[in-house]
Amino acid sequence: MAWVYLFIASVCEIGWAIGLKYSEGFTKLVPSIFTTIGMIATYYFLALALKTIPVGTGYAIWTGIGAVGTAILGMILFNESKDLFRIISIGLIVAGIIGLKFFSSETMQ
Q1: Closest CA to 66 of 107, 106, 97, 23
Q2: What was the pLDDT predicted at 102?
Q3: What's the gap between Cα 66 and its chain centre?
Q4: Strand ranges for the chain from DSSP E
Q5: Where are the domains of the chain?
Q6: pLDDT tens digits for range 14-39
Q7: If you average pLDDT over residues 55-76, what whole number do you get?
Q8: Using CA atoms, how far apart are residues 50 and 74, in angstroms rounded to an integer?
Q9: CA-CA distances (angstroms) from residue 8 to 25, 28, 52, 88, 109?
Q10: Cα–Cα distances in angstroms (integers) from residue 14 to residues 71, 96, 105, in the given order
């Protein structure tokens, strides 16, 4: 269940990061509310996940999924650069996430 919590925390991370853009510095009420809820939810689920998953592994995977998801949504929603080197860099983050998950001591037990 810890890995499910970590995934939920990561999705919430993506949500609040994108929400920051829509909130325009917390000047728009509705996006600001959703952003704040996402922030609270991400830490809640991360805390649940870290009861079992090693903190280094959990934190790295959480931030990695958040970074990848936010970068991809930035390209889709905000027409951010789709440069080849950016795509390759995102792929390297994904490779690191997979490696951490595969070689986690919690997974290997």
Answers
A1: 97
A2: 85
A3: 2
A4: none
A5: 2-108
A6: 999 999 999 999 999 999 999 999 99
A7: 95
A8: 28
A9: 25, 25, 15, 25, 23
A10: 9, 18, 26
